[in-house]
Design brief:
By secondary structure, the protein is of the alpha/beta class. 27% of the residues lie in helices and 12% in strands. The chain is built from five helices and six strands, in the order E-H-E-H-E-H-E-E-E-H-H. Strands 1-2-3 form a three-stranded parallel β-sheet, with helices on one face. A three-stranded antiparallel β-sheet has the order 4-5-6, with no helix packed on it. Helix 1 (17-26) runs parallel beside helix 2 (52-71). The chain is globular, with a radius of gyration of 18 Å. It starts with a strand and ends in a 15-residue tail after the last helix.
Length: 199
Amino acid sequence: MWLALMSMVSSMNAAELPDMIGLAARIGADVFAFGRYCPTKSQRLEEFRMEPLEYRALLLACQKRIDELTAAGCTTTFQKKDHLWTLLEWEQGRFTIPEGAACGKIYDGCHCGIAHMTALPTGDVYACRRMESRIGNVREKIMFDLFTGQNIEAHREFSKFEKCNCCKLRGWCRGCPAVAAGYTGNRYAPDPQCWMEVD
């Protein structure tokens, strides 16, 4: 049997997350991951919001727990889905910008519009499953045409990122546009939990 666990994290359960990581290791889960609370228009719960430095402290606590478990021989894969892990690991020297990386090129980070789509049972296809981003329906167009078509281009306008365009990690992070959209209505607004200071 293969076991993958995933949790949503917010201010309501953040303190429990390092213990959940430990639990995943104890029961022998194959994979453990978590994603941030992503509000919707109808359910924007401000009490779930985490401040940037509060979220950074949480990632540090999780990193410490993961390092301890890995050193002890834990075989659970801890997926670092959140792109703000890149920022933390860059600060720690665990991630470095590759030599010869082209300025302005997108290498990693949020995959919306560049590496994934979501198809619902209705056939509707979204550029991102976490925000309003419908680009068509597979009953009307094949997936290839949806991925290369005009509707998805609105999710590839990387020059519109308000904060990330001034950041050296733009090509590898960009936070989570869905979380930004959930809080502000604008997917290109600064990620609400990003603690990076840019000029």
